[in-house]
C-alpha cells in the first residue's frame, strides 16, 4: 500500500515537470524567433513578456475557487526579472547553441552548488548521470559553436544563475500558482522601469509584440506555474539536471517546425541527455 500511495504523486510530479520543460522549450523558440526575425528590442520584449505573463496568472487565480492569496516575494521577482532581461539581451548576439550551453550550464552549476551547501549527497549513479547528460549536451551543440562575445556570454551566464536561484526559491511552496503570480506581479514594474530607461532605443514591432505576448502568457506564465508545482517533489539535482533536456527538446522542435534534418549526432545527443537525467532522479522518494 505505501508504494501504491506514492505512485500517483510520482506520476503527477513527472507530468508537471514534463509539461513545464516543454513550455520552456517553446518559450526559447518564441524568444529566438522574435529577437532574430523581427525588429523588437530586448527591453520591449521582456516588458511585454512579463506583463502578459502576470495578466494570465491573475486570470487563472481569479477563476480559482476561494479567496485570492498573497504570495511570492520581491527576491524571487528580482531573480525572475534578472533572468528574463539578461536572457533577451544575450540572445541578440549569441547563437542558439552557444546560448543554450551557457544558460543551462549555469543553471546546473547553481543547482549543484546549492545542493552541496544544503547537504545533498550524490550517489555514484547520479554523478554518472550528470556527467552523461552534460557530455550529451556538449556533444549535441559543440560542433556549431564559435567563441561568444564576452558581454553576451556574461549576460547569459547571469541569466542562468538567476534562473537557478528562482528555481531553488520555488521549492516546497504550498501554492505554486499564487507564488508565481505574485512574483510576476512584482517583476512587472521592474520590466516597465527597464523599458523606460531604454526608451531612446525601443523599437515597437507588431510581430515581435505578438510573439512576446505568447511567450509571456503561455510558455512563461503557465510554464513557470507548472514548474513551481513540480518543484515540490524534485530534489535540487533532479530539478537542475532535468532542465538540461530543454536544449534537446528545442533542437528536436527545430527539426519539426523549421524543417532541419535529424542526424545520428542529434539522436545520440538526445539519448545521452535524457538517459543521464533519468539516472540523476532518486526514484526512492515520492
Keywords:
78% helix, 286 residues, 11 helices, globular, disordered N terminus
Overview of this structure, please?
- By secondary structure, the protein is an all-alpha fold.
- The chain has eleven helices and no strands.
- The chain starts with a helix and ends in a 6-residue tail after the last helix.
Q: Give the overall form.
A: globular
**Residue fraction in strands:** under 5%
Percent helix range: over 70%
Overall pLDDT level: 80
Which structural class do the helices and strands define?
mainly alpha
User: What does the largest sheet look like?
Assistant: none
- State the end-to-end distance: 13 Å
The arrangement of helices and strands along the chain is HHHHHHHHHHH
Strands, total number? 0
Ranges with pLDDT <50 over ≥5 residues? 1-8
> Cα-atom Rg, whole angstroms?
18 Å
In DSSP terms, counting alpha (H) and pi (I) runs of 4 or more, how many helices? 11
Amino acid at each position: 500500500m505505501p508504494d501504491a500511495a506514492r505512485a500517483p504523486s510520482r506520476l503527477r510530479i513527472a507530468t508537471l515537470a514534463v509539461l513545464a520543460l516543454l513550455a520552456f522549450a517553446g518559450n526559447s523558440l518564441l524568444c529566438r524567433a522574435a529577437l532574430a526575425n523581427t525588429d523588437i528590442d530586448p527591453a520591449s520584449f521582456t516588458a511585454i513578456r512579463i506583463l502578459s505573463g502576470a495578466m494570465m496568472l491573475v486570470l487563472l487565480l481569479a477563476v480559482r475557487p476561494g479567496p485570492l492569496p498573497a504570495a511570492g516575494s520581491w527576491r524571487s521577482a528580482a531573480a525572475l526579472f534578472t533572468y528574463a532581461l539578461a536572457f533577451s539581451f544575450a540572445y541578440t548576439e549569441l547563437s542558439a547553441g552557444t546560448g543554450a550551453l551557457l544558460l543551462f550550464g549555469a543553471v546546473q552549476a547553481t543547482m549543484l552548488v546549492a545542493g552541496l551547501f544544503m547537504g545533498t549527497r550524490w550517489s555514484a549513479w547520479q554523478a554518472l548521470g550528470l556527467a552523461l547528460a552534460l557530455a550529451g549536451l556538449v556533444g549535441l551543440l559543440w560542433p556549431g559553436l564559435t567563441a561568444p562575445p564576452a558581454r553576451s556570454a556574461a549576460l547569459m551566464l547571469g541569466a542562468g544563475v538567476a534562473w537557478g536561484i528562482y528555481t531553488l526559491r520555488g521549492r516546497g511552496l504550498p501554492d505554486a500558482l499564487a507564488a508565481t503570480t505574485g512574483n510576476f506581479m512584482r517583476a512587472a514594474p521592474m520590466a516597465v522601469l527597464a523599458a523606460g530607461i531604454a526608451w531612446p532605443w525601443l523599437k515597437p514591432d507588431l510581430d515581435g509584440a505578438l510573439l512576446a505576448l505568447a511567450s509571456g502568457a503561455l510558455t512563461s506564465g503557465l510554464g513557470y506555474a507548472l514548474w513551481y508545482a513540480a518543484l515540490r517533489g524534485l530534489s535540487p539535482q533532479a530539478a537542475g539536471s532535468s532542465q538540461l533536456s530543454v536544449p534537446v527538446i528545442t533542437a528536436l522542435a527545430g527539426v519539426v517546425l523549421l524543417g532541419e534534418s535529424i542526424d545520428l549526432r542529434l539522436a545520440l545527443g538526445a539519448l545521452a541527455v535524457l538517459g543521464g537525467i533519468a539516472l540523476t532522479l532518486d526514484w526512492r522518494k515520492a
